[in-house]
Here is the input.
Amino acid sequence: MLKTEDLSVSYGNVHALQGVNLEVRAKGVLHGIIGPNGAGKSTLMDAITGRRKPTRGRVLVDGQDITARSVSWRRRFGMSRSFQRTSIFPGLTVREQLALVATELGEPDLDEIVDAFELRASLDLPADSIAYGDQRRVDIALAMIGKPNLMLLDEPAAGLSTTETIGLFEHLVRLVRQRGVTALVVEHDVDAVFRFCDEVTALDLGKLILTGKPAEVRSDARVVTAYLGTAA
Ligand SMILES: Nc1ncnc2c1ncn2[C@@H]1O[C@H](COP(=O)(O)OP(=O)(O)O)[C@@H](O)[C@H]1O
Ligand SMILES: [Mg+2]
Here is the structure.
């Protein structure tokens, strides 16, 4: 489904990503990315979504090399990402924002998304006026529009409480399963990652340490040393 080969990104002489070979095989799964600050998680997401041109390496989706494709080509191709800011067009209601993107991308069942993220009560409110936790759900709902095959979320729960984070992941998992979307999620709340993700990849210093089942990654000595420390 998704594969990166030798994916590398340098900012001048900062080697943010170094030869990352990531593979996500199944559809309808949640794949978590963890790692300390500066590990290269956002750079990896940006290189996959096309926001950042890799210095070296390739991005393949279903065997097709999409490394050179634009962000908008990728979106039409079925790759979406969240934005961490809900109000794409200031002043629009939640309904208007969702409808705008749904019209552009041809979403057959916006109601399913609205219900899955429990957004019905917020539909007619200006998107920038609703509670922060609700805005985070709108943000992910926007990324879910148009039946993407692959969804990339960079810290979707940033700024949320533990309870809100769990709620957000519950919503996310439900729709990922329902729609068969594969979601790649960077999240620093490792408890949420280990609880909800099917597979987890740990990064450190721009390199992939390992990919595995949550239990396997959580107990890996290298991951514990690099990231989890005594908290594990
Ligand atoms: N635009 C940039 N210019 C220069 N260095 C950057 C830039 N973005 C990130 N970096 C550096 O690249 C490394 C990886 O950053 P990032 O991908 O944001 O890590 P993470 O998301 O895991 O915290 C860090 O050392 C960071 O300082
Ligand atoms: Mg980051």
Summary: The CA atoms of residues 203 and 209 lie 5 Å apart. DSSP finds nine helices and eleven strands in the chain.
